[in-house]
Amino acid sequence: MSGASNFVEGVDLAFTIILGASIFFLIAITILMIYFVIRYRKSKNPKASQIHGNNKLEIIWTVIPTILVLIMFYYGWMGYKPMREVPDDAIPITVYGQMWSWSYEYENGKISDKLVVPLNKAVRLDLVSRDVIHSFYIPAFRIKEDVVPGTDNYMWFIAQEEGSFNVFCAEYCGDRHAYMLSTVEVIPETEYLAWLDRSDVPEGQHPGLTILKQNACISCHSLDGSKLIGPSFQGIYGRTETVVEEGTDSEITVDDDYIKSSINEPNLQVVKDYTPGLMISYKEQLSDEDLNQIIEYFKTLK
Ligand code: CUA
């Protein structure tokens, strides 16, 4: 089978058949319309004639389209059915969708922001949303599935070409939906196994920053002072902020307690002029140790 994944042939076949039928009828109907306009123009046919019923014609225009849509259904079904039948030996990888990034967790606990997979091996993706509905889409592989909070969804594929392929979010999920770009990196299996055992964290990177990156915090909070969805982390520690709690403004100093409560209960005291409800609680994702590392990292961001 050719194509970047094992599904390319089946999907492209269904697509070509439907597109071919559409083009055929577009052209045929247009030609017929032009012909009728000329053939039955007023000067040629001054008196309108009424035609009642034609069984032969009605049977033809019922049977032919029925056969056509059944052919379309057959090829569509043959392309789709294998997508839901995951081989038992598929390598499981968990995909987390969150506003607004994808992250990937491998069997050994490694987390990455690019999906790295071995060539010619079945890979199963378990799709988990941490907040709203996203849609995981790899155009080159011809696969797309919704990532829905509270439900388990999955997809699988065999990558058949080495290289880097785009991943998009195909479900509008808020302000920075368009930033949910990622890639699939297809590499030979030996390289994949070596990559899996290697740490991708840049040498000397603060562990707090690693945690912020892995949890997509920095897709909403900048490190350079620019205003995104949430307040910037630059100079955050010790800063004075006006926060809104149940409609009432108050002044607070950003200290350990405020940072911890903002991560665990992000909608309790929201910094003024920012929209509440856009951040979920990270209580389940981050341990006390993680929170302390984040706080230590904030102290370095002057
Ligand atoms: Cu996630 Cu759009």
What does this structure look like?
It is a single chain. The chain is an alpha+beta fold. It folds into three domains: 8-40 and 54-84, no CATH class; 91-196, Sandwich (Immunoglobulin-like); 207-298, Cytochrome Bc1 Complex, Chain D, domain 2 (Orthogonal Bundle), CATH 1.10.760.10. Helices cover 32% and strands 23% of the residues. It has helices at residues 8-39, 55-80, 189-197, 207-214, 256-264, 288-300, and strands at residues 91-98, 101-105, 111-112, 115-118, 122-129, 134-138, 143-147, 153-158, 163-169, 182-187, 240-245, 248-253, 270-271. Strands 3-2-1-5-8 form a five-stranded mixed beta sheet, with no helix packed on it. A hairpin with a 5-residue loop joins strand 2 (101-105) and strand 3 (111-112). The model has no long low-confidence stretch (mean pLDDT 90). It binds dinuclear copper ion. Dinuclear copper ion binds next to loops.
